[in-house]
């Protein structure tokens, strides 16, 4: 299983990396937080560490640390715009529940 991107998410990452002028791709992980246990963490991937897994989808590298991968393997990342709001959305097949505000999840 890997981490995949929709065309909208891949376009968004390429656009931001282009504006930034450097970076290897998208770094995705999780942290313990919130009322349900875990929250997604998204950032630029500027380096690849020995504990990282690297996936490539639609010409974009997605870097995930091994510990986070166990919680998000098989996830598809989308990018959506709803009115003035825009955000990455995660379709994680491992999620058993989410908090009411949508900020955290359990596996």
Question: What would you say about this model in short?
Answer:
This protein has 107 residues and is an alpha/beta fold.
- Widest sheet, order of strands: 3-2-5-4
CATH top level class name: Mainly Beta
Shape: globular
CATH architectural label: Sandwich
* Helix content range: 10-25%
Write up what this structure looks like:
This protein is α/β, with parallel strands linked by helices and 107 residues long. Helices cover 20% and strands 47% of the residues. The longest helix has 14 residues, at 7-20. The model has no long low-confidence stretch (mean pLDDT 88).
Key traits:
107 residues, alpha/beta, Hypothetical Protein Aq_1857, Chain: A, four-stranded mixed β-sheet, three-stranded mixed β-sheet, 2 helices, 9 strands
What does the secondary structure layout of this molecule look like, with pairings?
Layout: E1 4-5, H1 7-20, E2 25-33, E3 37-45, E4 52-57, E5 60-65, H2 66-72, E6 76-82, E7 85-91, E8 97-98, E9 105-106
Parallel strand pairs: 1-6, 2-5
Antiparallel strand pairs: 2-3, 4-5, 6-7, 8-9
């Amino acid at each position: 299983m890997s981490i995949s991107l929709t065309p909208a998410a891949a376009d968004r990452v390429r656009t931001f990396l282009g504006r930034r002028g450097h970076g290897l791709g998208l770094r995705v992980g999780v942290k313990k937080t919130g009322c349900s246990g875990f929250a997604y963490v998204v950032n630029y991937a500027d380096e690849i560490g020995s504990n990282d897994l690297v996936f490539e989808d639609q010409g974009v590298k997605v870097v995930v640390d091994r510990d986070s991968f166990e919680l998000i393997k098989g996830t598809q990342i989308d990018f959506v715009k709803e009115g003035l709001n825009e955000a990455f959305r995660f379709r994680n097949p491992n999620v058993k529940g989410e908090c009411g505000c949508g900020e955290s999840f359990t596996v």
